[in-house]
Write a structure and sequence with these properties.
Blueprint: E1 5-12, E2 17-24, E3 29-33, H1 39-49, E4 52-57, H2 63-66, H3 69-76, E5 79-81, H4 88-92, H5 94-101, E6 120-123, E7 126-132, E8 141-145, E9 150-154, E10 157-158, E11 161-162, H6 172-183, E12 191-194, E13 200-201, H7 202-208
Parallel strand pairs: 3-4, 4-5, 9-12
Antiparallel strand pairs: 1-2, 2-3, 6-7, 7-8, 8-9, 10-11, 12-13
């Protein structure tokens, strides 16, 4: 019997970023994905779910996704995995970026494990394939459970939109190529949790996302 992933979305930072608490129902082992800030809110969600966090996962290095990662790693005593090493400059600049956007307490962070195309990430009994999907940022990664038909896509793809590419390291053509060559082939039934806004499916975005027509 395959393990079932469960997820709780916790909006954090002034950007209302979807920090996701993802856990394995069989083991109650969990990961916090993209803790951009508002750590007390994240810790309350962990307690409410009754799970044990074993790692932090980062889809990319922007402030609203990674700004709270260094402190949360210390508070939980866990490791950080991701993003791809191409986002190291973004992670190194987090304190300055936080100050510019009024996000207090942001610290530079170096993951315990960089992720690359073809890597596998585990959470309890769940496993996720890593897809390197540059465009929104050079080191953006997507985490895919092919078994559970589920993907955590960060800011690569949104309901009816795609990640912005006007920030340093952004590349619109690369972003569209990442979506069309790596995400759309996953199958229309795959459920997406994006970095902002509502959830969607590959099929919904293939059908009516104006950026993919």
């Amino acid at each position: 019997m395959p393990s079932t992933p469960r997820a709780a979305i916790i909006p954090v930072t002034p950007f209302q970023q979807n920090c996701t608490l993802l856990w394995c129902e069989a083991t109650k082992r969990a990961a916090v994905i993209d803790p951009g800030g508002d750590l007390d809110r994240i810790l309350a969600a962990i307690e409410k779910a009754g799970v044990t966090v074993e790692k932090i996962l980062l889809t990319h290095g922007h402030i609203d996704h990674a700004g709270g990662a260094a402190e949360l790693r210390e508070r939980l005593g866990v490791t950080i995995e991701g993003p791809h090493e191409a986002d190291k400059p973004l992670l190194d600049r987090l304190p300055g970026t936080g100050a510019a956007y009024g996000i207090e307490g942001a610290r530079a962070v170096t993951p315990d494990r960089w992720l690359a195309e073809g890597d596998v990430v585990t959470v309890g009994d769940l496993s996720f394939d890593v897809l390197h999907c540059p465009g929104h940022s050079p080191g953006s990664v997507v985490l895919v459970s092919r078994e559970a038909r589920f993907a955590q896509v960060g800011d690569v793809l949104f309901r009816g939109s795609v990640g912005r590419t006007d920030l340093p390291g952004g590349d619109h053509a690369a972003l569209i190529a990442s979506i069309k060559t790596k995400l759309l082939p996953l199958g229309d039934d795959v459920v997406l949790i994006p970095g902002h806004g509502p959830t969607s499916t590959i099929g919904q975005e293939r059908l009516d996302n104006p950026f993919l027509q």
